[in-house]
Amino acid sequence: MDKCQEAQIFRHACKVFNGKKIVDEDWHYILEAGRMSPSSFGMEPWRFLVVKSQKIKEQLQPLCWNQKQISTCSHLLIIKNQIALVQDEEYIAKMFARRGLSQEATAQYIERYKSFIKPLDIDVWTAKQCYIAMESMMLAVAFRHIDSCPIEGFEREKVERFLGLDTAKERVAVIVTFGFRLNPQPAHHRLPLEELVQKL
Ligand SMILES: Cc1cc2nc3c(=O)[nH]c(=O)nc-3n(C[C@H](O)[C@H](O)[C@H](O)COP(=O)(O)O)c2cc1C
Predict the structure, then answer these.
(1) Dihedral angle at the C-alpha atoms of 177, 181, 184, 186, nearest 10 degrees?
(2) To test the ligand 1 pocket, which listed residue (148, 152, 190) has its Cβ within 8 A of the most ligand atoms?
(3) How many structural domains are present in the chain?
């Protein structure tokens, strides 16, 4: 078994953490894994809001189905999907300019991007990509034997109101908690490949 497979087995949705804190170097490594995640057109439509304050975690818990992960984790990460930014001319220009293409190719690329996003639900499109960043972080951290739990069980509008977000600009896509497990890991339940893989 290689290290990635080991990490996949180690990772599970940790329901309660033991209170031990993640050291700064490991936390930086987690954020780097998020930063390096792939995104559609390379637009990086996420921003990572880090919550270390115990008081804020406790205030958030009732808005997150009262889940214990929220208040027992070491670090809580709110991944915000960027709605306004990915439609902002200046940001679009900046993100495409760094590819080092000719002016003409850049302009064509931007046109393609704009026509691609035109029919999309931008909230859904950007949120989907936040989930990719979340999984990058959860898997990376498992290599270092740090636990995580993805959290979709929260009242989105209430959390956004609590954070004072301008939801026309950005929304809460998903929350991830990180720390160290209190309890032994339960077995993974997965369908066999024969049931998942189809062939043409
Ligand atoms: C997008 C997403 C949201 C999730 N939200 C929650 C949640 O709010 N609370 C929770 O305890 N687990 C949550 N989970 C964990 C899943 O229940 C878990 O990954 C699944 O049951 C498989 O178990 P395992 O990850 O331990 O192998 C979520 C998982 C994903 C991918």
Answers:
(1) 10
(2) 152
(3) 1
